[in-house]
């Protein structure tokens, strides 16, 4: 445990079993994030297990780890799916700025304020998706021209802000927004969501870097694991298609509802 990248990281006192758990969690989180988002649901709680780490440090370091996996999956999707950048890039730019604002707010307001709203939104998303079983199988854009791009930018701003404030489930919100509001298939939505999610991670990361919240050694461990998981996840999603992504989406959103609901009940 004397390696230079562990010094001052909080990992010097981590047991080998905790380090292994971090690696496996980063791998799984990268895979889930690449398919439909929500990897932070796994990664953030494990980061909080590091001795002496604060919630803001855990959130910041989670962003650092996630950006490696998101970048890898975004490139993989781009090479194999060729998503329309005319929609993805404006969303990404607005989301980047909004995520930075959310990260600044995260250090001022407790996340407990937002959790009930997020749980209610997730339940609504789940019910809506179940009620529309064919939604997201094929791309059938609901709007064109300025209305399409205007709604895309609004989605990017809202979800980017959420990613900076809390984070877990951002990819899932992006996917369902792109599917339900704009009319993309789950596969096309996942490909675009990775580009946007990369921007939101970067926006939050810039703020967290400036205020010194990142635990670099931990972020490096999570980042390498996320890269591998993101690559495998993106290739699997492309091979399996929208039906597979929709199934994983149901699982991730359900777990998010249970996890955040339990945190509200127990006051965590």
From TrEMBL:
Compartments where found: Cell membrane
Membrane topology category: Multi-pass membrane protein
Hydrolase listed as a keyword: no
InterPro entries, per database record: TM_pro_TauE-like, TSUP
Main location: membrane
Regions annotated as coiled coil: none
Regions crossing the membrane: 20-42, 88-107, 113-134, 146-165, 171-190, 202-224, 244-262
Origin: domain of life: Bacteria
Swiss-Prot/TrEMBL keywords: Cell membrane, Membrane, Transmembrane, Transmembrane helix, Transport
Protein family per UniProt: Belongs to the 4-toluene sulfonate uptake permease (TSUP) (TC 2.A.102) family.
Official protein name in the record: Probable membrane transporter protein
UniProt source species: Kocuria gwangalliensis
Lineage: Bacteria, Bacillati, Actinomycetota, Actinomycetes, Micrococcales
